[in-house]
């Protein structure tokens, strides 16, 4: 519930790495996000600091990333931000910013894309259940006593 959801616009910095794991497909790539600002003194746009994120995608999103995303392409990534700090080799501290992606798409303000719906993956064969019998069951045969109780004698003919 208390997660940090971010929407980041940047360029793909590394080729996506796709893996089939026991938990399902997974893909990751590095995303470079550079701030730009207008330098009034020089009257030009200037690049600011560049942040790098490792973007993680799972399941069908991972499959689609592997088929669609290439180095240098501008993309928009939405997902959960996770910042980790680790100690490496006993002394050096290392910090990484990861995004567990929920959605990834090309930035259409900087180019065009041709969307193609992904084919649904074939679901594994499941045990088939017999089709229910929706027909009305036949009435059970009546015993002679039930027949006599249901039978109303006809009035006798008067002559």
Automatic annotation (TrEMBL):
It comes from the Bacteria. It comes from Streptomyces filipinensis. This is Single-stranded DNA-binding protein. PROSITE patterns: SSB (PS50935). CDD domains: SSB_OBF (cd04496). The keyword DNA-binding applies. Pfam families: SSB. InterPro entries: NA-bd_OB-fold, Primosome_PriB/ssb, ssDNA-bd. GO terms for biological process: DNA replication. Residues 114-159 are annotated as: Disordered. The keyword DNA-binding applies. One of its GO terms (molecular function) is single-stranded DNA binding. Keywords: DNA-binding.
